[in-house]
Design goal:
The protein is built from 16 helices and five strands. With 391 residues, it is mostly helical.
Amino acid sequence: MQAHPRAGELVTTSTVGEVVRAFVPRPLPPDPPLSLTEDDRELIDRANRALGRLDGLGMLLPDTQLFLYLYIRKEAVLSSQIEGTQSSLSDLLLFESEHAPGVPMDDVVEVSNYVGAVQHGLSRMRGGFPLSLRLIKEMHEVLLSRGRGSTKQPGQFRTSQNWIGGARPGVAEFVPPPADQVVRCMGDLERFLHGDPVRTPVLLRAALVHVQFETIHPFLDGNGRLGRLLIPLLLCAEGVLQEPMLYLSLYFKRNRREYYGRLTAVRDSGAWEDWVRFFMQGVAETAEQAVSAARGILGLFDEDRQPLVALGRQASAALRLHEVMKRRPIASIAQLSALSSMSIPSTTQALGNLQRLGLVRETTGRQRGKVFVYQRYIDRLNEGTTTPGEE
């Protein structure tokens, strides 16, 4: 492991019986300051314009919350897959519908925790609470509230040394700061979040904060997921987005090798500018894809609605059920009955119509406790989430 003076320094520390060199980052912003070319600034402008169009989706979508509900869940799946889980979006929706998926339960619980952490952070910020170390700890506590990470100090900065890659710290790919430096490093990061010592444009700030958080690795577990989550929350906190609709995990997953390589190059070579270019390219692509995906989903809904309108007397119930399944694309008959305020027989008949038209399918093969899925919608949402991330 190396250290570039622009990024930080190596310090000697002892952990689990080994003497190792741990990396301690310098406070942000980088010094010397970022040296951005005209092409870099054009890329940043493109990313900002794409964010503006993404934020304007509220005028395009009849129900922004419908899109956001499932987009947050898709991001939760992707961010967790980067860490090695094998849960899919369908698994998560089945879990939330109280129908256990056929995957390791710890995987789907981790993804569900991520959704809870997003919702907690948003709720607190909308109540006037700042994006701060206290809120980061609260979100971490939710993220590790159940499952594999529940024994790893949820909501608390680590008090012991951690490392990344390798069975022991002596052969690790990266050793973050010693535990006794975490609070100081995170305090510096919080000040930069709030514009001290220098006010930095918010998108640049998000790019720099993500690297710094991953470098400090302040928790025993969950650092990667929480570090990615901070990006959209910072944009919401600064008013760039009204809803946390920018999620970079698909971009990071598709470019996984480069993602980790750019993080490493900042520490080893002080290559902040290369990271900024990679990050801004991701923001631009992801925001543009999100707008395109929203339009595609609206087109799918309109296309699927047409044959329902032609059902005559049975059209009303079928259309009502279609509206419900936009919000709950995997559900049981009882759940759909309750959500649509229709009787079980009316719901069953409407589901039969949707099945015959090829819009939904039954997933269990059972006579009782049947679960139905709005398959075309799920397929559209699943794009990019079907190949689990590598360990």
